[in-house]
Amino acid sequence: MKLEENSQFGFMLDQSKCVGCRTCSLSCKDYKNMPVGVNFRRVFETEGGEWTCKSDGSLEQNIFAYYTSISCNHCSNPSCLKACPTGATMKVKWGIVIVEDSMCIGCKACAMACPYGAPQFNHESGHMSKCDGCYERLKEGKNPICVDSCPFRALKAGDITELREEYGNLASITPLPDASITHPNLCIVPEKHSLPSGNKSAIFHLPQNYQGVKDDII
Amino acid sequence: MQQNRRNFLKWSALFGGLATNPISLSANLLKDTPILTKWAGCNVNCGTKCPVKVHTQDGVIKYVSTDDEGDDSFDKRQARACIRGRSSKYKVYNANRITRPLKRVGKRGEGKFIPISWEQAFDEIASKMKETKEKYGNEAFFITYATGTTGTIVNRCTKGPWARLLSLYGGYLNYHNSYSTAQISNAMNFFYGGSPSSDIATLRSAKLAIFFGTNHVETRMGGGGIGYAYQKALEESGCKIIHIDPRYNDSIIGHCDEWIPIAPGTDAALIAALAYVMIKENLLDRNFLDKYTIGFSENTLPEDAPKNSSYESYVLGLSDGVEKTPDWASKITKIPARRIIQLAREVSTIEPCFIEQGWGVQRHSNGEQGARAIATLACMIGSIGIEGGNTGVRTGSSKTYDIMGMPCPNPIKDSIPCFLFTDAIYRGKEMTDVSDGVRGTTQLKQNIKFIFNTAGNCLTNQHSTIKEVDRILSDESLCECIVDINVTRTPSNNYADYILPDATMLEQEDFIRPSAGYYSNRPYIIYCQKAIEPVGESKPIYEMCLELAKRLGIENEFSEGRTQKDWLKYLYEESMKKNPLLPSFKEMREKGLVKFDPVKPTIALESFVKDPINNPLKTPSGKIEIYSIKLAQMQKTWKLKQGQQIVPIPVFESQREGPLDPLKEKYPLQFFGYHYKGRTHSSFWEISAIREINPQEIWVNTIDAKQRNIKTGDVIRVKNDLGVIQGIAKVTPKIIPGCATTPQGAWVKYENGIDIGTCVNSLASLLPTAISKGNGQHSILVEIEKA
């Protein structure tokens, strides 16, 4: 992948291919060497539908499920940037949003502002941290590590204009917020069950929210 | 060793022992040294062996990546490792990693150990081996079934150096079957004389595909597996795709058309009802059944078979007075009768139809029957031996390039079903061929007295009724010595007398055995180039076995003068004699990952269907045996547990702890384990970075959860007469009401009698299945409540 000087970087997610394996999350954590609790890429589960028990004991249903793998969308109108009191969150080359460690005071304002949950507090460094699109790899013409790790080829990265030409300009998918809020540089190929943003009928699940992880396991 | 210790001390000192995060600081300290790249592989037993590229700096792993070669077009696709392979760094640098030999102190099972030297470990183990051989004979030695490091040559747990060492020392008790496939593999041997299956790529030619408990994208999601090939085939086929499964599994996402939820263990009832409709509506492929199979109808039964013993007679109720109507099946399976009738019409009129089952169907107490029934459906529609059809068996590889393993000439032929190893500890000498499926002899000569558990967690965790196993293994008068070899502490090695620290695949040279790959139509071989020195004092098992061989007086026989690398070269060059397509050893070793040209995808039973006379199957009749001649014989001679039966045709049996078991009054929910994305069985549980994003959740259906006032995130308990497990609830509509599930392989951890590790096998019965003596571990009835 090669980015032109003034292009805007973005991601494409094909939900019809994403099976929620989370290889993207783990390969990112491994490459960026982030501790437990910090996940630059997160995989949301969405599921819904109803069961009907018939009088003869049989069951009918219209259950569905799909996954949404999301990192930072390097938004055109990033709410994290506006919320940052020190200017540590900034947009750099190719419209990539980064947090500059030396300026970050770890106040978490960016995390609270971002509707995608992209900025992550690193307990080890005391700073906020987030996806930078694997900036150093982009400079070498390589893909972000998550894209090259996907066993199902559900992720792509590149010039968002080109991605949108090929895959459309849809990003307002539940459980994500409406794209009009931050103008994410993200386009999504929906799974056939994918719901528009704001739909309250489905269940959303980010598994890491529910339990702590210990190494004391024997 | 010096270099190895230096590196280990360096990062362990930096992080206060075995921390999980050795890189961030060391990377700063060692900025200017170059990053080196070596090939290795992920060799646990998901059936896939994905390439892993290891990036190191000054002897420490910085990160891993995977296959990035080729243009990634489908026939040149990259075999991209999944989350498991990508976590290799975390496996190497892990808080639970064993870095020194350990010896038990205190009572066995308490899990208390002290570090000892390698010399002491070798001396004491060798002396105990001599004592065992003298006192009980070689039949008392056993290497347990294990899946932690498979598919490699020198490090292959139950076929490598340990098996060779014991073979040359006079032999050991063998096992047969596996925990993954005991029932389906035996069932298919009786049915097809083997497990013939089409390549997943041939799905592209199907018009209809029906999957029973099949879940390629979770079980084999790595690029060396068939998950991606499955998805590509679905994309390209445009065929109608139906999944029949109690759980809305992730293979249903994307291009599939329908999920038909089914009560676990009732597949044979569904098939019988489909057969009923097809008989009544004259939809069967009678030509196929008459020409290629025996026992579907009375006219193809063997001569000595009783009247009304055919499958058709069973379906029509001529043998038991019960017609297997859609209404009958609907009550058992929970599938609406109307849908069963429609499905029978679809499956018999849309051609070709690809029928496949995963291994979940057969892991029930009636699993052999379910497996054979699904294969029977494939025969009823005759969609076998043609492009786009399949036999009802799980798809496999089209071609693999094998490399010879180390010779292990075990003089002892006695063999037990692997699931019965705990029985063989306390009643081995009672075990016979017709009561316990013992092979190679009619009765065992000795109880198991000495266990080698190498890269395994089946001593407790992956076995059943773990409290009972604890009782058997804790008794030092039964099995007198347990040696455990692993890279990590596990619940199983809590029971060891000695734990020996193994090296990972990143820390030694070895082949990743390609015969265990499922890359479908494009074989490859990985040569692990050794990226780092073994952590701590850990060492490859070849070196351990060589040291023991010295002490047992069989060093020359064992090594034949070869080092590990010499063996790899020797075995590879022997394999080259049979396969001229293999590159030289030098080239293989330098390249690390060698991929071969794509091959034509296999169509199962193609030659048999073209010419059944000249290509007979390996069954007694040479045909597909819907009525099994061997099972008919076993029906007369085998001694079974109470409530068990052997029937030559695949009738639906109401299984132990199934939906029709009276025990359901007390324990109303069917409970089962499924294969999880974050693990292969219990491997990778030690890695917190994986558990964080693929946590252990107990799925409870929305309706059942409401009745019990359970919400997502609640701590809940799942209990039956065998145990209690505790874990976090996930309330979801993605499982059929009346059922609950949790991913299998979580590590058991008892606190006050409750397994807070949420290991499903704590609740599973030790009773083996009737025919295979396999693990029917998905047949569990429970009640669930908030903790």
UniProtKB/TrEMBL annotation, chain A:
Q: Could you tell me which Pfam families the record lists for this protein? A: Fer4_11
What PROSITE patterns does UniProt report for this protein, alphabetically? 4FE4S_FER_1, 4FE4S_FER_2
GO MF annotations in UniProt: 4 iron, 4 sulfur cluster binding; metal ion binding
In terms of InterPro entries, this protein maps to: 4Fe4S_Fe-S-bd, 4Fe4S_Fe_S_CS, DMSO_DmsB, ET_IronSulfur_Cluster-Binding
- Give the Gene3D superfamilies listed for this entry: 3.30.70.20
List, alphabetically, the SUPFAM superfamilies matched: 4Fe-4S ferredoxins
Which co-factors does it depend on?
A: [4Fe-4S] cluster
Keyword set, alphabetical order:
4Fe-4S, Electron transport, Iron, Iron-sulfur, Metal-binding, Repeat, Transport
Q: What role does it play?
A: Electron transfer subunit of the terminal reductase during anaerobic growth on various sulfoxide and N-oxide compounds.
What protein is this chain from?
Dimethylsulfoxide reductase, chain B
Source organism of the structure: Campylobacter ornithocola
